[in-house]
Amino acid sequence: MSAQIHDNAAWSQATPTVSVLIPFLRDDPQELLRQLESEAPALSGAVELILLDDGTADADLTTRLQATIDALHLPARLITLATNEGRARGRNRLTTAARGEAYLFLDSDMRPDTAAFLQNWLRLVTDSAPAVAFGGFSLDQAPTDARFAVHRALSGASECLPASQRTLTPEKYVYTSNLLVRRDVFTAEAFDPGFSGWGWEDVEWAMRVSRRFPVVHIDNPATHMGLDTVEDLARKFDQGAGNFARVVALHPAIVQTYPSYKAARALKRLPALPLARRLMKQAALTTALPIKARAFALRLYRAAVYADAV
């Protein structure tokens, strides 16, 4: 697939240690770029930024981003695709442009929680060069609108965990939104391009990688700003069912230990599963119910959707 490539002035002379890889689709990563740029004086060209517009097809956005990148002191490249490649293929493509010895996968809707975010990652690579390291999620800067309250509850309970807790099951808590991977490790294990649409490609990758390389967890979190409404989350769960089925087929022994798999197996036995699914979704959408009850209903809905895959 043809790609439009735009480099800033700092790109050609840089010899980076860490390559920050930022894919996006119908999103504007300029605020993230501004935050990362604030660390430029402390990094001395050791960190580069590579962005991939995975088919947004917005010429005005491309023009604005090119201007923003040109003004950065951090070495930066923008790759613009005319059509969408998907999450796995897009991230694989980003690594082919990277020059660092480690890749930091960072989603465009993430916001670093400290002023030394990139410096912390660079220090880790310089000091110990881990095979794989996850920095963690938070909701510190995330919107507090009522329409995102259910997503906040879900994320806070299952994703925003300290490194000490994530380390207990290291392969389970690996997300490409704040993930460091050493170059040779990614060469050995890239993302599976068989995944399409939303979800599970990073979890499946972690299952493969954890068999061959240690996965470490640190507390260098970033906020996930892109919270969704219940309707949008339900739509993503619908889209992710096929990917979940692929993970089950590839890694049955691991997936069978997951609560989501066990719940899906239990719900599969319901004689009126399609009706139950509709009722679960309706409960999650009902604003009169307590947030915890709505979040529980949405988790049940996800399991009921995945029941078709188990």
Description:
This protein is an alpha/beta fold. 45% of the residues lie in helices and 16% in strands. It has an 8-stranded mixed β-sheet, with helices on both faces. Helix 3 (59-70) links the parallel strand 3 and strand 4. The longest helix is centred in the last third of the chain and has 21 residues, at 230-250. It is globular, with a radius of gyration of 20 Å. The chain starts with a strand and ends with a helix. The model has no long low-confidence stretch (mean pLDDT 91).
For the structure shown, list the relevant keywords.
310 residues; alpha/beta; globular
Instruction: Give the rounded overall mean pLDDT.
Output: 91
Outline the biggest β-sheet.
8 strands, mixed
Alpha carbon gap, first and last residue: 35 Å
Which geometry do the CA atoms define?
Answer: globular
Which spans have pLDDT < 50 for at least 5 consecutive residues? Answer: none
Rg, Cα atoms, Å? 20 Å
- Got a strand count? 11
H/I helix tally: 14
Order of helices and strands: EEHHEHEHEEHEEHHEHHEEHHHHH
Strand order of the largest sheet: 1-4-3-2-5-9-7-10
Query: Which percent bin holds the helix content?
Result: 40-55%
Q: Helix/strand-derived class?
A: alpha/beta
Write the layout of secondary structure elements.
Layout: E1 3-7, E2 18-24, H1 30-37, H2 40-43, E3 47-54, H3 59-70, E4 76-81, H4 87-97, E5 102-106, E6 110-112, H5 117-128, E7 132-134, E8 137-138, H6 149-158, H7 163-166, E9 178-182, H8 183-188, H9 201-210, E10 215-217, E11 222-224, H10 230-250, H11 252-255, H12 259-268, H13 273-285, H14 291-306
Parallel strand pairs: 2-3, 2-5, 3-4, 7-10, 8-11
Antiparallel strand pairs: 1-4, 5-9, 6-11, 7-9
